[in-house]
Structure formats: structure tokens, C-alpha cells
Amino acid sequence: MNPLLDNFFNGQILAQYAPSILGGFWLTVEVALLTILVGVGAGLGLAIVRAMRIRAADIAITVFVDIFRTLPQLVVIIFIYFGLPYADIQLSPFAATVIALGAVLAAFATEIFWAAIQAVPQGQWDAARSLGLGFFRILFLVILPQAIRIAVPLLTNRAIAITKGTALGTAVSLPELLGRAQSAMAIAANPSPLTLAAALYLLFFLPLVVASRWLEGLGPRGR
Question: How far apart are CA 169 and CA 96, in angstroms?
């Protein structure tokens, strides 16, 4: 048992590298929350545009969604960080990671919100029109509140899956949680820093997983 504790729960090494790893943890939290804000916000906006049935916009959004749902997150991060400078756009590792992961999440969120909008019965549109409401009032006051409720459980699961990609930011030198833990592990020749990183990932993501299960219970199938 002692070798296990010494290798994975070494108190001296944990105390030595904890400040650096905690700094990486808070950076990971910032990236994850901004990714969710950017991805979900952009996805909802694009789904609303699709609801307007503007053909050119619909084609452009479909192309965006198909591309970013297909590309691996790491490829998107590397392309944005190393490719955009050729267009005179220089981004920090933090900004490149948030934009890349946000774009991937936006692609999935667009499809989720669009499917949820289509899942609202046509009778809701017809009933609202019979009351004299215009397109945008129907969309924002009648359809979207129901669609968002339908979309939230699936969207939460997808957001968790994509935000865990913050660890891929190490490819562009983002000093996030896993990157700092791996560096500390290499220097100390001991995996204890990785144990601390795993505990911090659980601390952040486990409540989100529990919340997603709770939201699933509030959805149509859970009622």
C-alpha cells in the first residue's frame, strides 16, 4: 500500500506543485465557462436565423455546422492559433482555445436548438397566428421557451463533452490544468500531480453531470 500512496498521493509533491496546478484549474474553469457562453449563445442565434427560412443563410449555417461537427477539436484549435496569423489575426492561446471550442459547441448547439424548434408542434404556430401574433413574437414568446426546455438536457451533455477539450489547449501552450499537471509529473518523476488534477476535474465536472441528469428528469420524457 505504501508504494501506491507514495506514487499517487505523495503529500510532499502535492504540496509543492499544488499552487501551480490550482492556477491551471482556474484557467480551465474560465475557458470552460466562456466556451459554454460562446457556443450556446452562438448556437441559439444561428438556430433562430435558420427559423427565418432565409435560403442563403440556411446554406451557410448548414456548411458551418457540418464542418465544425466533423473536424476534431484539436485540429480546430491548431488551425485557429497557427493559421489565422497568416491573415494578420494573432490570438492568444486562451482566445484561440475558447474560440475553437466555442465554434465546435456552437455547431452542435445549432443542430440541437433547431431540432428542438422543429419538435414543437405545428399547432403552436397556428394557434399563435390565430391570436394575431407576428413571426418574431411567436418565435420568442411561444416557440423558443418550449424548444429550449426540450434542448437543455442534450445540450448540457454535449457542452460537458466539449468543454473537457480544454485539455487540448496544451497544444498551443495554454497553461491549463492538465498541462501543468503533466509538467509537474515530469519534473517530479511522480504521478501525484496528475492525481490532484483528476480530483479537480471531478470537482468541476461532476456537479455538471449531476445537473444534466436532473435536467433530463425535467424534460418531456421525465414528466
Answer: 8
Domain that holds residue 176: 18-119+148-218
Q: Are 104 and 161 in contact (CB under 8 A)?
A: no
Please say whether the beta carbons of 170 and 182 come within 8 A.
yes
Residue 21 CB coordination number (10 Å): 22
Q: All 3 cell numbers of residue 119?
A: 419538435
Average pLDDT over residues 129-139: 91
Share of the chain residues as helix, strand and coil, in percent rounded to the nearest 5:
85, 0, 15
Vertex 146 angle, CA 165 and 109, to 5°: 20
Angle separating helix axes 11-51 and 55-70, nearest 10 degrees: 160
> For 92-121, what is each residue's pLDDT tens digit?
999 999 999 999 999 999 999 999 999 999
Residue 68 lies in a domain: yes
Q: Would residue 126 count as lying in a domain?
A: no
Q: Are 69 and 108 in contact (CB under 8 A)?
A: yes
